[in-house]
Amino acid sequence: MVTTTGVTNNPEKQITAFSSFAPEEIKGDRILAAIDVGTNSIHMVIVKIQPDLPAFSIIDREKETVRLGNFDETTKTLTSEAMDRAVSALKRCCAIAASLQAEDVIAVATSAVREATNGADFIDRVYQEVGLTVNVISGTEEARRIYLGVLSGMEFHSQPHAVIDIGGGSTELILGTGEPHRCLSSTKVGAVRLTAQFVKTNPISNSEFIALRAYVRGMLELPIQELKAKLESQETIRLIGTSGTIECLAALVAYKRLGLVPDPLNGYQMTYEDLSKLVEELRRASYSERLAMPEMSPRRAEIIVAGAVILHEAMGLLGAKSITICERALREGVVVDWMITHGLIEDRMQFQKSVRQRNVLKTAHKYKVHLNRAERVAQFVMDLFDQTYGSLHTWGPLEKELLWAATILHNCGHFISHSAHHKHSYYLIRHGELLGYTETELEVIANIARYHRRSGPKKKHDNFRSLPTRYHRQMVSQLSALLRVAVALDRRGIGAIKSIHCHFDSEAHALHLEVLPSHAGEDCASELWNLGYKKQYFEEVFETQLIARLVSG
Predict the structure, then answer these.
(1) Which of 157-161, 356-360, 377-381 has the highest mean predicted lDDT (pLDDT)?
(2) Which CATH number applies to 154-327: 3.30.420.150, 3.40.1080.20, 3.40.50.150, 3.40.50.1820?
């Protein structure tokens, strides 16, 4: 069994995940493994992190083409054969990571698992058979981490760069200058997906090629328009390409020009003109002819035509005359994100450290949340969390952070309607593409917010049932109970209560809550009445009595 970031081998005791490490607490080099469970392949990098610099170097790689994305578009299910291949590959990855004494193995899944109707079953199987937790990430979160990976390997010199990453199921586009990204997008055009949809002949027929190219152009037009809209007047962009598909295309162009393939490819430039010629050659070549080309694997030869069309159309729409190859992408971005989370990066990517908090506040602004009130409730719930730790719960820093996010956004559903706004809050949080979070973390945040009022969690509720484990359901139940108490303490939204103090009486099994008013003479009657009305769920969840009283300053 492999212990991974965010989990332990016992899912009921995952309470110290993503704990922050201050730089001065870190001694010596650290070994980390990052795995990308993609639509086409499973990739792993193992890196040695040097905290003093801070920097990392890649000490090993592993890759296997498992084609998780080869599923029926009508059923959207991963096949048992593909899952078997993936589980075997992940077992090998974890064995390699263990042999190199990696302290953490972080795995993220993208398009195929994200879209598959049985994606959760696959994740559960990996956990049961491999001992590895796979975190599903959204398309925009994938793009954010790709950006981090590229920044770790290239200098942008404060100039706008567009980054394109062509995967098996989706294509990510990013615009940034090396500082906070300006634009992130993920579009469902990928080399495996489009090959399955459009390529039935060998070589590809003229009609199929025309249909493929038209579809790609239609799908990419809007995200590229949105990216261009983020450019300031007179700005021009440089294009960066990542992923195996783009590296393969660059290798083919380089071989034609130089008679060899540069090693490494990082920094190699491929022109739009050279790519145009290569696309024509690839479309006319049979599978066996493509396979005979340099640097071409059997699996890559199957999907390279669709991949080449995606890149060609993207470059045309962007008006890019050339593209520069970057060999760092999502996997390295996962490493960078881990370093940021653990307090190891304080250089030009420091802005990413607060990406979660900034995106929660941005979402709150978008849905017109009364931020002063939300922050007041958040202060109450953070105090409750800290003061009941060890007596009522043992949740850790990660869970506290998820509770904070849910508290800030618990009322965002008012943006749609006051009626049943807690349900609207769930929907807006779950589908708002908050950056920095995995899909499971978003599900937890949305559920905590959902249950800040009215009925408690029930197994018949689809949203509660969709939580992956009993551990996550227990987290939602207990943290939403804390949130209910905090919401009650600001019943009128005027800041009548200044602060709270908790004391747990273990003999009586009662939590005493002392309430200090903001102003002398304020009886806080509405808040105390509301707390008495809403405390039942809290008492049921924690099996304790809640006794509140007003105290003077």
Answers:
(1) 377-381
(2) 3.30.420.150
Chain segment 177-229, per-residue pLDDT in tens: 988 899 999 999 999 999 999 999 999 999 999 999 999 999 999 999 999 99
CA atoms within 13 A on the CB side of 35: 30
CA gap 296, 249 in Å, rounded: 9
DSSP codes, 364-406: HHHTT--HHHHHHHHHHHHHHHHHHBTTTB---HHHHHHHHHH
CATH of region 356-550: 1.10.3210.10
Q: What is 434-489 written as a DSSP string?
A: -TT--HHHHHHHHHHHHTSSSS---TTSHHHHTSSSHHHHHHHHHHHHHHHHHHHT
Q: Which CATH class is domain 11-137+332-343?
A: alpha beta
Which pTM value belongs to this model? Answer: 0.79
Is 314 in contact with 164 (CB distance < 8 Å)?
yes
CATH 3.30.420.40 domain extents, the chain: 11-137+332-343
